[in-house]
Amino acid sequence: SEDILEHSLGATPLEAVVVTNVSKTKNESVEDQLRAITMLLEQAPRHTVLNRDDLSYDQLAEHVSAAQDMTYGSHEDSEARIDNKTLYKKGSEVRLVVDHRTSIELATYLVGEANVYNLVSAVATLYIIGEKITMLDEGAARLETVHGNYHYVESNKPYTVAIDHAPNDDAVLKVAGTAKQLTKRRFIVVAEASGMDQ
């Protein structure tokens, strides 16, 4: 946000602005993030992709001037709508409906709700820029891990340790929700909580 607000992009033409979520982080307020994203949207990118489920959606949607924009999420009005998602200990599956007519099923080794949203944002972005999305299942299935993004620590212990670098309050809640859903017994969260509200 700081770089954007200091005009470091200058007059660089923007092909696409993709917004995943807006939430307070250790270093940034929601207000700074909203100002920075609004600044990008007002530069009239060719395409915009917004998370319809994010609390900031209505505020950001007012500034969308792109000729082609797309929304994603589980909200019924989303153009890339999450129809169903299943979270597993070693991956995720999602069925989405794109543009209210094309159904796609994707499976990935990436774990958790946040990763489902990231995957769907990628699908929405590819769709809006005109790429074929029918072959995405193969690419999603090949992506095995993103470092710092809900990955398991190898150990011979009788318990499982998962690590995620959740950068904001919303991400922490999603990660904790995923871990709780995948846990059969006792569930312990250890978090560096500096700068977080919850």
Structure in words:
With 198 residues, this protein is α/β, with parallel strands linked by helices. It is built from 6 helices and 8 strands; from the N terminus they run αβαβαββββααββα. It has helices spanning 2-5, 30-41, 57-61, 113-128, 136-142, 169-182, and strands at 16-19, 47-51, 68-73, 80-88, 91-98, 102-108, 151-152, 162-163. Helix 3 (57-61) links the parallel strand 2 and strand 3 (68-73). The two termini are 22 Å apart. The relative contact order is 0.13.
Summarize the structure.
This protein is α/β, with parallel strands linked by helices. It has helices at residues 2-5, 30-41, 57-61, 113-128, 136-142, 169-182, and strands spanning 16-19, 47-51, 68-73, 80-88, 91-98, 102-108, 151-152, 162-163.
Q: What would the keywords be for this entry?
A:
single chain, two-stranded antiparallel sheet, six-stranded mixed β-sheet, 198 residues, 8 strands, alpha/beta
Secondary-structure topology with pairs:
Layout: H1 2-5, E1 16-19, H2 30-41, E2 47-51, H3 57-61, E3 68-73, E4 80-88, E5 91-98, E6 102-108, H4 113-128, H5 136-142, E7 151-152, E8 162-163, H6 169-182
Parallel strand pairs: 1-2, 2-3, 3-4
Antiparallel strand pairs: 4-5, 5-6, 7-8
The count of DSSP E runs of length 2 or more, i.e. the number of strands, is 8
Q: Which radius of gyration do the C-alpha atoms yield? A: 18 Å
Mean pLDDT: 84
**Spatial separation of the terminal alpha carbons:** 22 Å
Largest sheet composition: 6 strands, mixed
Low-pLDDT regions? none
Read across the widest sheet, the strand sequence of neighbours is 1-2-3-4-5-6
**Global outline:** globular
The helix-and-strand class reads alpha/beta
Which percent range describes the beta-strand content? 15-25%
